[in-house]
Every structure is written in C-alpha cells, then in structure tokens.
C-alpha cells in the first residue's frame, strides 16, 4: 500500500508538472518533515516515477514508466470508488482468487486487484489465461450489487461496454464485442472478461469481474497457439500504450455504467452493447456444453442471454457458449 505522504507528494508534483516544488512546500502539503519527503521521493523513483531534483529549486515530476502500482493507477484516476482501493502484486497466481478472498474479508466495493503477472490466470470454461509480465493488464474488480444471482451475466456485458469505451478514449481504434465476453480488433481477441460470484439462491454477495487485456505485446510475444486469435492494443495502434491510463478509463466507465444500470436497469446498456456487437444478425455456430447449434443471432435478452433462431424457426436461449461465424 502506498503511504498517504507518498500520495500527497505525487499529487503535488503532478499538479505542478513544469515547476519545481521545494522540499519544504511538499512537506507542508503532506504534513511531514523534509527528511520524510526525501525518503518518499526515493520510493517514488523506485516505483518508476522520474523525478528531477535541483539544488535550491526542489523537485519536478518529469515522467513515469509503464507500471501498474497503486500510485500509477491513483494518479489521474477520475472515479469516486472504483479503483480507489488498489491491491497490487508483482506476481500472483490469479487476481480472481485474491479478489474472492478479499470479498470474504469485507473489502470495499470497487476494490481493484491487479498484477504485473499471473502464474495461473484463468479464463472462461476453466481455460488457462496467458498472463505474462510487463505487457498486459490482469485485474479483478470487486462489486457488491444487491441483486439476485440471475443478473450476474449482465455484468459481463456492462463491463464489455466499459472496456470498449475505455479503448476508444485511450487508443481511438475500432473494437467490437463478440458475445458474451470477447473484445476483438480485426477479428482477434484483445480482451476477455470473466464474471464470477459469491451468492445464495436469492442474492449476490459479491461479484468478481476479471478483465484480461493484451496491451503492449508485440507479435513475437504471443505463443504460437495464440498468434492467429489474439492481438494487442499496441499492435492495432502502432504505438506503446499507457497501461495505467487504460485501467483508469476502464474504472471510470465501469463506475459510470454500474451507476446507470443500478438506477435505470439494463435497457440503456443493452442498446450500447448491441451497437458494438459483431455477431448480431449473423449466421453463427454456438458450441455449448450440451452440443452445437447453428442459426441467426437475433440479439440478447434483458438478462444478457443470446437468442439464436435455427433453420426451423425455433428460438434458442444461449447462456454460455463459444460462438463462430
Ligand atoms: C476469457 O476470455 O476466457 C476470460 C479471461 C479473463 C482473464 C482475467 S485476467 C484477470 C483475471 N484473473 C484471472 O485469473 N482471470 C481474469
């Protein structure tokens, strides 16, 4: 956890990017001694912030490296609660697993668990999720909506809309959603979403939304088996992308759409989701646990369930599947 003093120093330096602030000024703003400021400046440098110091002038924030520590995320975050409590790991088995534990330990809503690397990242349908160090975003957000458990799948769709808008804000590239949880660029996956819950038959106790985003991988960074199906924001945009900025924008839109959803229901989100969805109106193949169905994807229900009309005109409700077209 970053200390209050370190946060205060960062906020002061970043709000005066072009001027030097003296140690005394920083100390006054943080309510500590000048010696403490010196120590915290060193800590911030270790976290990847480039801070210039000049004798008789003081300190100036020059830049930051592409890291995802608590301070990297907090600096520039425009939310009330989402992502305000950050639990960061250099390496972890799965952020989902940690978030489940934190949910039981009464961590606040909006808690963000994020890791530079996951050893056993997990995807949908018990698949492994490749989560190497340094290039992606592997994070889980803890929510506590007072809703029945049948509503949980809608959160995958709310999250997909938030991620699409965050990508558009930061990268300005065209992305599309493939039901239920894939975000694609040029038909290749850049983001997967995994919604898990702790609930009884009546009510959700906590929702854990896992988001895996390929951000700065280059083609050589993907293992052979993913080369044809995955890509990254950096490949699509042709430049290195700030991961912290992407996280901040995802948190911002997720908080916004969560609020809209809790106040107005699923209808406004559904409209947006359908406007980004690739598969609607297409002839698709859906591979479910119980077999394969083919037909036209008509749309989604208010519960986020996919409607598929087969060649006999029968409409099937699909809760979970891999789809192709
Ligand atoms: C999928 O498309 O199958 C969903 C992938 C979800 C991956 C993310 S990465 C962060 C979080 N921790 C995990 O172990 N999984 C999710």
Brief summary:
The protein has 325 residues and is α+β, with helices and mostly antiparallel strands.
Q: Main traits of this protein?
A:
SH3 type barrels, alpha+beta, 9 helices, binds biotin, BirA Bifunctional Protein, domain 2, 7-stranded mixed sheet, 14 strands, Arc Repressor Mutant, subunit A, 325 residues, elongated
Helices and strands, with pairings:
Blueprint: H1 4-14, H2 23-30, H3 34-46, E1 49-54, E2 58-64, H4 70-74, E3 86-92, H5 95-104, E4 112-118, E5 136-143, H6 152-171, E6 176-178, E7 182-185, E8 188-199, E9 204-214, H7 233-237, H8 243-264, H9 267-276, E10 283-288, E11 291-300, E12 306-309, E13 315-318, E14 322-324
Parallel strand pairs: 3-4
Antiparallel strand pairs: 1-2, 4-5, 5-9, 6-7, 7-8, 8-9, 10-11, 10-14, 11-12, 12-13
Helix pairs in contact: 1-2, 1-3, 2-3, 6-8, 6-9
């Amino acid at each position: 956890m970053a200390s209050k003093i370190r946060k205060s120093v960062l906020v002061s330096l970043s709000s005066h990017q072009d001027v030097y602030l003296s140690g005394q000024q920083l100390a006054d703003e943080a309510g500590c001694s000048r010696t403490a400021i010196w120590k915290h400046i060193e800590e911030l440098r270790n976290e990847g912030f480039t801070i210039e110091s000049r004798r008789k002038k003081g300190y100036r924030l020059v830049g930051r490296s592409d890291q995802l520590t608590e301070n990297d995320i907090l600096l520039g975050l425009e939310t009330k609660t989402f992502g305000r409590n950050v639990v960061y790991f250099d390496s972890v088995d799965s952020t989902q697993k940690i978030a489940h534990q934190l949910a039981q330990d009464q961590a606040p809503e909006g808690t963000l668990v994020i890791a530079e690397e996951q050893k056993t990242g997990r995807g949908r349908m018990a698949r492994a999720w490749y989560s190497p160090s340094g290039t992606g975003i592997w994070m889980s957000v803890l929510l506590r909506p007072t809703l029945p458990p049948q509503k949980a799948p809608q959160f995958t769709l709310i999250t997909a809309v938030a991620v699409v808008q965050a990508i558009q804000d930061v990268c300005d590239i065209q992305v599309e959603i493939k039901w239920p949880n894939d975000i694609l660029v040029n038909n290749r996956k850049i983001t997967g979403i995994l919604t898990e819950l702790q609930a009884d038959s009546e009510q959700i106790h906590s929702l854990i939304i896992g988001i895996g985003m390929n951000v700065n991988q280059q083609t050589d960074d993907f293992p052979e088996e993913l080369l044809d199906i995955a890509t990254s924001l950096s490949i699509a945009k042709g430049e290195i992308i700030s991961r912290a900025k992407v996280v901040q924008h995802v948190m911002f839109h997720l908080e916004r759409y969560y609020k809209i959803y809790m106040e107005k229901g699923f209808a406004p989100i559904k409209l947006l989701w359908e406007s980004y969805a690739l598969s609607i109106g297409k002839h698709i193949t859906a591979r479910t646990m119980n077999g394969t169905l083919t037909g036209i994807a008509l749309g989604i229900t208010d519960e986020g369930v996919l409607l598929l009309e087969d060649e006999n005109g029968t409409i099937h409700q699909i809760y979970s599947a891999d789809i192709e077209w």
